[in-house]
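Subject: complex prediction, re-run

Hi both,

The earlier run crashed halfway through, so I resubmitted it with identical inputs.
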Amino acid sequence: MSAYNANWSLMTPEIVLMILALVIFTLDFMTGMSRNKPFLGRLSILSLLATTVLVAVFNRETGQIGDMFVVDGFAMVLKIVILLGVAGVIAISMYYVDRHRDVYQGEYYSLLLFATLGAMLMVSSADLITLFVGLELLSISAYCLAGFKKYNGKSTEAAIKYVVLGGTASAFILYGMSFVYGLTGTTSLVDINEAVPTLFADYPYIMTMAIMFMIAGFGFKISVVPFHMWAPDVYEGAPTPVTSFLSVVSKIAGFGIVLRVFFVGFESVYDEWAFIFALLAAITMIVGNMIAIVQRKVKRLMAFSGVAQAGYLLVPVATMVSLDMTMSMITFYAVAYLLMTLGAFAIITLVTEDTEDDALTSFSGLYQRAPYLAIAMTIFLLSLAGLPITAGFFGKFYIFVGAIQAEMLWLAVIMIFTSIVSFFYYFGIMKQMFMRDPKPNDDQTLSVPKPVSAVVTISLVGTIGFGLLANVLTNYFNNLQWFF
Amino acid sequence: MTGQEIMFIILALIAICCASLVIVLKRISHRVLSMAFCSFAIAGLYFLLRAEFLGIIQIMVYVGGLTVLFVFAVMMTDHRTTTFVPERSKVFKFVSFIGVGSLLSIMLIGILGMDLPAGTEPFIGTAEAIGLELYGNYVIAFLGVGILLLAALIGAIVIARKEADEQ
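This time it finished cleanly. Structure:
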């Protein structure tokens, strides 16, 4: 392939988003030093929505520019999920930066948009180099965003821990990739997939090592046990909207790169790595849910809840019956995860900012202060726990059935058992909201800013809607051509 | 033992020693210096592998550019030694040493046990071949790196800048 005869129109959404991000960055320094620029947030949301439309229009047909950039069902669905997720994060951020005038808004929004661009690159490439560049673009923007409140010790601590550990994880990924490149002589995942079966026969030790290195590095990015240590500290220290970005967008994009690398690049040796993912899924579900029980701070609790959710998402990877079914399960749960986590984080941002305290007790008496928020939060938590009429329930049920079909009964049993454990800590928040009285020095009613209530409402409608009409989405996913 | 192997061992030892010194040394200026020497040794390894262009780029970018940038960064930011957590206990250090050591030995077993045929192609790392790959096949990654550097620049400025007095 050369750059001159490629079909560049496939990249339209990325190019448009890049230009809009640069325009927003330029508008910021053209409008002076004032710290309050709400129009930048609105423009960012608009550009994300415009890009979403472009993705839906231009990425309908499968196509590719070499193996560098591929457009297929997987790329399209995940791009839409990521773009809408970032739009929600920015809506939450608009409330946050309004209260924290020490956050540079223009840089904040443009970094979020650059990170989105990296995430889009991560889900639509079939080449190790392009995938890695996308991953680093997302990661480096996220490191900076975590330290955006630079006069807050915890935020700085979070950023430093994140950059050091994240850099180590990237080094592991790169080292594993370099072994694969050294043995195959190519960075294209399609060519790698053809070459690996014979390589596994010739060099089983070194190939297993390369795959283990990559799993360790990717495992860090999607925060699965035992590579999850960074998550609670970084989630706690980072500004709350950035936490929601890390737990929603960063994680879904991380899953995107894992699925792309392993299901396109190493699909021919599925049996060699599937059991590693099964083990990881099992310990992630157990450890994540167990440690979450003892957490007293809501952001740390959400961090461990996010770890546990990553475990559920790994189950279909380990229990593949057919590729289409696995992809359909993971993407359905990713959509559900996006909706419920984003909604929950919108409420968490509002409540922790209002009480200036991130302990679980900051939720006490929320039902009396803001009944709508309390009920919405309950639905999100029920969905995260996996109780009926929510999208989370159906997603989990779908994964559960898949695990049974693949005859991985032990994994399905662990999933059910840990889901029951998760009720304890999710119900802990509900208990605070409904059965405690508000603290005396809090306002009697909590006023809800418009962007936050919009995110909550959309997530609520989505969570219940996809819970009731799950087959709309699954039918669409089942007929999609996932990989090019 | 051929001359190539002797050169390799010398350069590899320099690279590893200097890389360890970056962690061991106390003063940041000494660390920057040992990092420069580490990059020099790696450039030498590239020359041994017949990738002359990459070797020259390594010297220009890492030894020349990056080291100077580090010196600038040291000069322009004020730095104090701060710790987030208390000094780790002896047991902790011992356990992590064992962990890293076993990881290294696992890797060495794999790498030393590998028997690969020697490459025969004489000109693999020429400027022409790299240029064609970089601006032909890998052009999207190249553009992505551009955005990556911009994002890193913006983030670094936001985090490292001193606040001006606001009136």
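The two ends of chain A are 17 Å apart (CA to CA).

- K.
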